[in-house]
Design goal:
The structure is a single chain. The protein is built from 14 helices and 23 strands. It is of the alpha/beta class. The protein is globular. It starts with a strand and ends in a 5-residue tail after the last strand.
Length: about 575
């Protein structure tokens, strides 16, 4: 390679001399000088540690640039922060310098998607002490201001942010009763456990829990200042020890405790949140955590597959198959040439000239260039908007009413189900918003279909979303003077009982899950007569949060009563003695 040292920082003995291998990899000279060749800018590789290579091991550059023939061409979950992720790697290239030895690898594709098995929260908002088991499809029900949304917020706060939670994501207002002496602790347990290894040839360790503690420094100059401590824990609740170095001649491999939560472990827990604000802008592909973004990531990954071709005519008029991604790049180049007006070129030249002057370089004499270029395919997908055209008038869907935007968001949810995307954890607040009863029933079915391959956790005020044969999917949220607590049924779910509730527990009877007090009666006669009798006694059953549920005969009274009592709902029974 005909390359020489030029520019600032290159000493008189180096300037103009051939660039030797030792000089190319010297990290200090790499930081000070600029390398050029006749072909344009040349990437200068930094120094690698001079150590004995373990037989069968890889150079770091080979690991990071995907040159290892042993790395199988798996398709990991696409990272929304990097379109240049190589097969077999679990970290975007730019997330870690390519000269670092801290290459991170997963242990390969999972047999089943990860899900949130349980959640433990202490001193977060209304949640003083809370430990709950989370099923695959989980309905969280309860009255207003009972703390339902705080459960979802605890999950979202620690799993959803782009680069993980930070201290500034929590405030004193998030502490239970705003008590400055208390610390927030949130612990998420996953099933199956996540597997992690920093070095490819190392044995993976099992990560079962993430723990987040919002406390204060105990010692040092920052004593008393709030901090957020994050930990990856194994099944024993301890920080696992991982291999950080293969070892050298005469030295054993190095092992260290795993500190914090590496980004690739976070990436293994994809979380999508649909809140009360049904703004479509939050669900477009440009949003970091959205269903559309996740769908388009899959489409973009598929776009780069070799079997994706398109027919193109050559200059002789003959048709030939060209890879779709190659044709895209050709057309983008043509479009970019079309956009290069005189004003565009003048702007680009000005930026280049001034930037090189700042570096002490000559834009005309030095073989360096700087220019605008469009980005990759995923960047185009992320720029997409949804347009509504009505009577020839086009408008962005983000500008229409909330009801229309909510309909589009739910349409995206159904599309997510139809494309059979899997492995996500979906948090949805009040999916019944803006929907009439028939559409509520339809969406409920969609959520259960999504729940076959994804975990779905939602809050609801609608009985249409708790018409479940498996009542263990329901979390009943209540609040007392000690804060929010959750009741889960301990009633055994044998096949006979499941079949009975599948038949009998319709949306009208599911209103019992929302009742503060419950009265079970045999049939419609009692259900119609008792409210009139209560009105005669000047008792407003609805204001008291009381519900009268007819169960369809005496034989069902016991089963419904056991179900309600298992959720700690005060229950009364009215029946006659005719049989």
């Amino acid at each position: 390679m005909d390359a020489t040292w030029k520019g600032l920082g290159a000493g008189p003995r180096a300037r103009g001399r051939p660039l030797t291998r030792a000089a190319m990899i010297h990290p200090r000279r790499r930081a000070r000088a600029v390398c050029f060749s006749g072909r344009g800018p040349v990437r200068v590789r930094p120094a690698r540690r001079r150590c004995r290579r373990v037989p069968g091991s890889l150079r770091r550059s080979e690991r990071f640039f995907g040159r290892d023939p042993r790395i199988s061409h798996r398709h990991p979950r696409p990272s929304s922060r990097a379109t240049n992720k190589r097969p077999g790697l679990t970290r975007p290239r730019f997330a870690l310098p390519f000269w670092s030895s801290r290459a991170c690898y997963s242990s390969g594709p999972r047999e089943r998607p990860v899900r949130l098995k349980s959640l433990r929260v202490e001193n977060f908002r209304s949640l003083q002490t809370l430990t709950i088991e989370l099923p695959q499809v989980c309905a969280i029900v309860g009255p207003n201001n009972s703390g339902k949304s705080n459960i979802l917020e605890a999950i979202r706060r620690v799993l959803a942010p782009e680069w993980g939670p930070r201290t500034r994501d929590f405030t004193e207002d998030d502490v239970y009763l705003r008590d400055e002496t208390l610390d927030i602790e949130i612990e998420c347990t996953f099933e199956p456990p996540l597997e992690y290894r920093r070095l490819k040839e190392a044995d993976p360790v099992q990560i079962e829990r993430f723990r987040f503690v919002f406390d204060r420094y105990k010692i040092g100059p920052q004593t008393g200042t709030r901090r957020l401590e994050q930990s990856s824990l194994n099944a024993a609740g301890e920080k696992p020890t991982i291999m950080t170095s293969y070892g050298r001649k005469g030295a054993a491999p190095r092992f260290e405790p795993l500190i914090g939560i590496p980004q690739d472990l976070r990436d293994a827990v994809p979380l999508v949140h649909i809140g009360i604000d049904r703004s479509l802008r939050r669900q477009l592909p440009s949003a970091q955590y959205s269903l559309l973004r996740r769908i388009f990531e899959g489409i973009n990954e598929r776009l780069h597959h070799p079997d994706q071709t398109v027919k193109v005519r050559d200059r002789q008029g003959n048709e030939k198959d060209v890879p779709r991604i190659e044709r895209f790049q050709q057309l983008i180049t043509m479009a970019m040439n079309l956009l290069r007006t005189d004003e565009f070129n003048k702007l680009e030249t000005s930026i280049k000239r001034n930037a090189l002057e700042q570096l002490g370089l000559d834009a005309d004499a030095d073989a360096i260039d700087l220019y605008f270029t469009p980005l990759g395919t995923m960047d185009f997908y992320k720029s997409l908007d949804i347009i509504i055209k009505d009577h020839g008038f086009a408008i962005s869907a983000t500008e229409v009413g909330e009801g229309f935007q909510n309909a589009i968001v739910l349409a995206v949810l159904r599309a997510f189900e139809e494309t059979r995307r899997s492995g996500a954890i979906l948090l949805i607040e009040e999916p019944e918003m803006f929907l009439h009863p028939q559409m509520q029933r339809s969406l409920y079915k969609t959520l259960h279909k999504i729940g076959e391959t994804n975990q779905v956790i939602y809050t609801t005020h609608s009985p249409h979303f708790v018409s479940v044969p498996d009542y263990r999917d329901v979390l009943l949220v209540r609040r007392n003077e000690e804060g929010t607590y959750v009741v889960q049924s301990s009633l055994s779910a044998d096949n006979k009982r499941r079949q009975k509730f599948l038949k009998e527990l319709d949306p009208e009877r599911s209103e019992l899950f929302f009742a503060k007090r419950l009265l079970l009666v045999e049939g419609d006669t009692e259900k119609l007569a008792l409210p009139e009798y209560a009105a005669g006694l000047d008792i407003d059953l609805d204001r008291a949060g009381a519900t009268i549920v007819e169960v369809g005969g005496k034989r069902n009274l016991k089963d419904f009563a056991e179900l309600a009592i298992s959720f700690q709902i005060p229950t009364g029974i009215v029946y006659d003695k005719d049989s």
